Amino acid sequence: MAIDFNQATEKMKGAQDALRRELAEIRTGRANPRILDRVEVEYYGAMVPLNQVASISVPEARMLLITPFDKSALEAIITAINVSDLGLNPASDGNIVRLAIPQMTEERRKELAKEVKAEAEKSKVAVRNVRRDAMDAIKKDKDLTEDQVHESEDKIQKLTDDNIKAIDEIAADKEKELLTI
C-alpha cells in the first residue's frame, strides 16, 4: 500500500508534542522552569539557553531560583530575563537570581486561556493537513481496490479524530490549570 499510516501517525503525534511544548511555556501563576526555555543569555560572546549557564529550581510554588554555574554570568542572566517578554523582575543577592511569579488577574487568565485555544487550533490544523495529504495519497494510489480505499480513508479519519480528541484534552487540562489557580 502506498500510504504509510505510521508516518501519518508520527506527524499527528508531533502536532500533539508541539502543542505540549507551547503550552508548557505559558505562565500559569505557578513557578515552572519551562517558562525560561526561550530565554537566551549572552555568555562569552555567544547566545546560550539559560538552562545551559545556570540551574533552575522551584523552592516555592511561586518562586524560581536561578543559580549560575559561573558567577560571572549573573549580570548577563539578569539582563536576559529583563529583555525577555516574560514580564518578570529578577532579584539578585550577588550569587543567585530569584524570580517571583506574580499572581495573575482573572482577566490575564482569560487571555491566556484564549492563547491556549489558539495554539490547540494550530495543532488541529496540522493534524488535518496530515489527513488531507494521506487522503490525497490514498486517492492517487491506482493499485488499491475501492474497498481498500474506503478502508484506508476510514483508518485515516479515525486516526485524525483520535488525535484531535487528544489535542482537545491537552488544551482543556491547560485551561483548567489556568482558570483554577
UniProtKB/TrEMBL annotation:
User: Which UniProt keyword terms apply here?
Assistant: Coiled coil, Cytoplasm, Protein biosynthesis
**The keyword Protein biosynthesis is annotated on this UniProt entry:** yes
**Residues spanning the membrane:** none
| Residues of the Ribosome recycling factor domain | 19-179
Top-level taxon in the UniProt lineage: Bacteria
Any Pfam family from its record, for instance, is: RRF
Q: Which residues form a coiled coil?
A: 113-169
Localization per Swiss-Prot or TrEMBL: Cytoplasm
Q: Which InterPro entries match?
A: Ribosome_recyc_fac, Ribosome_recyc_fac_dom, RRF_sf
Give the similarity note.
Answer: Belongs to the RRF family.
Query: What does the record give as the function of this protein?
Result: Responsible for the release of ribosomes from messenger RNA at the termination of protein biosynthesis. May increase the efficiency of translation by recycling ribosomes from one round of translation to another.
Supply the name of the protein. Ribosome-recycling factor
- Organism from which the protein derives: Fructobacillus papyrifericola
